[in-house]
Amino acid sequence: MKARIILSTVPAMTMQWSRLLSAQRLGHQGAEPVTPARNPFQKDWDRVVFCSAFRRLQDKTQVHSLPESDYVRNRLTHSLEVSSVGRSLGAQVGQTVLQRADTKKLGAAAADGIGAAEFGHIVAAACLGHDIGNPPFGHFGEATIQHWFRSGPGAALIGELGPVEQRDFLFFEGNAQGFRVMTRLQNWRDAGGLRLTCATLATFMKYPFGSVAADPQKKKFGHFAAEAMLFEEMAGNVGLLTLGEDRYARHPLTYLVEAADDICYSVVDIEDGFKLGRITFAEAEERLKGLLRRLPPRYVEIADETWKIAYLRAKVIGDLIDLAVEVFLDHETDILSGRFTGDLLSQTAMAPQLDAIAGFTRQRIFETRERFQTEVMGGEILTSLLAAFCDAHHALELAGGDTVSLAPRQRALLRLMPLPPRGDATRYDWLLSVTDFISGMTDTYALSQFQRLRGLQ
Q1: For the structural domain made of 254-366, what CATH number should be given?
Q2: Helix (H) / strand (E) containing 381
Q3: Cα Rg for the chain, rounded, in angstroms?
C-alpha cells in the first residue's frame, strides 16, 4: 500500500507537498487521477520524448559542436542521462518525505496514489526537458543572440519595445525558451503546448521569475513576458511561495533537477574528455577516484581502460546521488519555506573535488582551438540568420502586412518560417517568432540554412 501525502497544518509561509505534486495539467480544470499503471507524470515524460523539439536535441551542441566522434554526448543523450539520474534522486527523496509525513501525522486528507515512484517520475520528466529550449551551438548560441540584440542590428529593432519586452531579448534565455516550447510552441494547433502537469512544469522551472526580476549578474530567468500568465497559473496551482515582487521560491524538486544536471556534467565530461583523447587515462582515473567514498573491490578485476573509466563513472554517479539526497533531506524545512540558498552538490563533502574538476575540464577539454573555431562559425551563422529573417519581418511590418512590395528574397525568407507570418503581428510577437525559429534549429540545419543564404548550396 502506498504512503499518503498529508495536507499539513504548518504555517502558510511553507510550501505543501500536497499541492506541489499537483497532477493538474496547465490549462485544464481538475487534476488527472494518479493510477498505478501509468500516472500523469509518466505521461509527461512520454509527451516530451515524442515531441519534435526533444528529437532535435540529438543535433545540438552539448559541449562539443559537431563532434568528430559519435561517442561524445549531445544534448539528447545528455538529457536522457540527466533524466535517469533525476528519477533516482526523486524516488529516494520521495520515500523519506512520505515516511516523515506519515510519522508526523500532519493533518487530514491526502493526494491518494502518490508514492516514491511518482516523485521520481516528476523529476525525470522535468529533467528530460531541461535543455529543450537551448539554441544551436549551446550557451555560445545564447550569448550570440543576446549580443545581437544588445549591440548588433537587433538593438534598433527592440528600441520601440517596453522595458520588460526588451529584456526578453537582451537576456535571451534557453530556460525561458524551454518553458515557451513546452507550454505554447509544441502542439500549437491545440493552443496549449504539451499540456504537462503543473508539478512537472514547476519542477522544470529553475528560475521562477521573468526577465524583469533576473539577477543583474547571472541574467537568468524562467519565462518570457509572453508566457507570464501561464507561469502565474502554474505557480498558483502548485503553491509556490512569493519572495517579493515578481519572484517566487523554487519548487523543491527543482533542486533535484539541478543536481542531476550537475552530476552528469561533472562526471561525464571526464569520460568524454578521455574518449576524445584530450585527457589521459591517469588524469581521468585520478579525478573520478577522488569523488568516491571508497573504491569498489571489483575495480581491480577490470583490465580495459575504457571500461575502467565507465565503471568509475557509474559508481561516482551513485555516490553523488546519495550525497545530494542527504543534503536535500537535511534541509527539507528550509527548502519548503524558500530559505535554502545555493545548490545541493555545493553542500556535500565532494564540493572541493567537483570545483577542481570544473576548472580542469574547462582548461583541458572546453578551451580548445577546435571549439573556438566552431564558435566563430556558430556566431557567423546565427547573426546572419537573425539579420536575414528579422529584416524580412521588419519589411513586412513597414509595408503594413502587404507582401507585394517586398523584395523577392524577403518574401522567400518569410515563406521559410514554420507558420505564415501575420501582417498584423506586433514587433514583440514577430521578434519572438524569429527567435523561436532560429533557437529551434539544430546545429546542422542552422549551418545548411546559412550556406543557402550565402548561395553556397
Answers
A1: 1.10.3410.10
A2: helix 369-398
A3: 23
Beta-carbon neighbour count of residue 189 at 10 Å? 5
Cα–Cα distance list, 209 to 80, 144, 174, 407 (Å): 26, 23, 14, 41
Measure the CA–CA gap between 383 and 107, rounded to whole angstroms.
57
Q: Per-domain residue ranges for the chain?
A: 254-366, 369-453
Contact present, 208 and 250 (Cβ < 8 Å): yes
Show pLDDT as tens, one digit a residue, over the chain (457 residues).
344 444 443 445 899 999 999 999 988 777 777 777 789 999 999 999 999 999 999 988 765 544 555 556 788 999 999 999 999 999 999 999 998 886 444 332 344 578 899 999 999 999 999 999 999 998 899 999 999 999 878 999 999 999 999 999 999 999 999 999 999 999 766 567 899 999 999 999 999 999 988 877 777 999 999 999 999 999 999 999 998 878 899 999 999 999 999 999 889 989 988 988 889 999 999 999 999 999 989 999 999 999 999 999 999 999 999 999 999 999 999 999 999 999 999 999 999 999 999 999 888 887 777 778 888 899 999 999 999 999 999 999 999 999 999 999 999 999 999 988 988 899 999 999 999 999 999 999 999 999 999 876 5
Other C-beta atoms within 10 Å of 257: how many?
A: 30
Q: Which three cell numbers stand for residue 29?
A: 480544470
Q: How far apart are CA 354 and CA 358, in angstroms?
A: 6
Which is nearest to 127 in space by CA: 92, 88, 167, 164?
88
Instruction: Give 113-155 as a 3 state SS string.
Output: CCCHHHHHHHHHHHHHCCCCCCCCCHHHHHHHHHHHHHHCCHH
Give Cβ neighbours of residue 441 (< 8 Å, ≥ 6 apart): 56, 135, 136, 385, 449
Provide φ and ψ at 222, rounded to 5°. -105, -15
Measured in whole angstroms, the distance separating CA 46 from the mean position of its chain's CA atoms is 17
Tell me how far apart the alpha carbons of residues 324 and 304 are, in angstroms, rounded to a whole number: 30
Q: Is there a contact between 21 and 27 (Cβ–Cβ < 8 Å)?
A: no
